[in-house]
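To the wet lab folks,

You asked to see what we're planning to order before we commit. Fair enough. Below is the target structure as tokens, and below that is the sequence we designed to fit it. If anything looks off to you, flag it before the synthesis order goes out.
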């Protein structure tokens, strides 16, 4: 394992252990966990399919532990993802912070992505971590979001990775419908082209999408369009696609 990877892994482990230590002492701040269970026709992230275009089951939980802080976890089935070394699933663990200042919501988070069942294929691991920050501006029933996520240099992703994105969401008054649109760009330095292709198949690229969601009580359903500017050998599972989802919030 390279020294940079050791440092990154220790940093993410330290953050997780710190959160576990804070949890009992900060229980008085918790209003209860938020749990989401859903099925989707694809696990598409930043314009790339992580499930090779196959349907997935997902579950996510967010547990408030202190004022503005929460512990977050999510899992999605991948069933032998070719993008991630044949992984059967992806497990996302992290800590997030939210601060509301008037009509602006500021966020910061750390995430570590683990890939159970993956073959390292000659490398130390398929797992990697990233940090992120964002600002959401609320204007009536609409919101506009600016965000950035950065994965420091790690052998699992062949270098580093920066993702910048903007998104807009608007609820249609008098209906349970919400419309959304987004655009993002992935870039970074490459040290190992084969590994960097996991997150950037043909180098830096743009992704974009739009969607409509129906939310009624604890149930939700949506139809989303996703596409990217990738136009080369890495275009497989990165082109235009409609993705359906149905979920239940507990």
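Sequence we intend to order:
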């Amino acid at each position: 394992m390279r020294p940079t990877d050791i440092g990154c892994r220790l940093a993410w482990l330290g953050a997780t252990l710190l959160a576990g230590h804070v949890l009992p002492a900060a229980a008085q701040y918790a209003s209860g966990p938020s749990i989401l269970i859903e099925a989707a026709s694809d696990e598409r992230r930043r314009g790339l399919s992580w499930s090779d275009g196959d349907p997935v089951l997902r579950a996510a939980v967010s547990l408030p532990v202190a004022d503005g802080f929460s512990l977050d976890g999510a899992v999605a089935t991948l069933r032998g993802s070719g993008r991630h070394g044949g992984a059967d699933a992806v497990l996302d663990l992290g800590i997030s912070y939210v601060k509301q200042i008037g009509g602006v919501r500021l966020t910061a988070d750390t995430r570590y992505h683990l890939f159970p069942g993956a073959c390292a294929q000659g490398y130390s691991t398929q797992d990697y971590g990233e940090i992120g920050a964002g600002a959401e501006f609320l204007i009536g029933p609409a919101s506009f979001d600016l965000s950035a996520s950065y994965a420091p240099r790690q052998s699992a992703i062949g270098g580093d990775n920066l993702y910048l994105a903007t998104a807009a969401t608007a609820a249609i008054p008098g209906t349970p419908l919400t419309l959304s649109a987004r655009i993002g760009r992935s870039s970074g330095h490459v040290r190992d082209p084969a590994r960097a292709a996991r997150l950037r198949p043909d180098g830096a690229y743009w992704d974009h999408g739009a969607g409509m969601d129906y939310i009624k009580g604890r149930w939700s359903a949506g139809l989303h369009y996703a596409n990217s500017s990738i136009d080369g050998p890495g275009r497989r599972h990165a082109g235009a696609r409609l993705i359906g989802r149905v979920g239940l919030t507990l």
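Structural context that might help your review: Helices lie at 3-25, 193-196. The chain has one domain: 3-249.

Thanks,
Computational group
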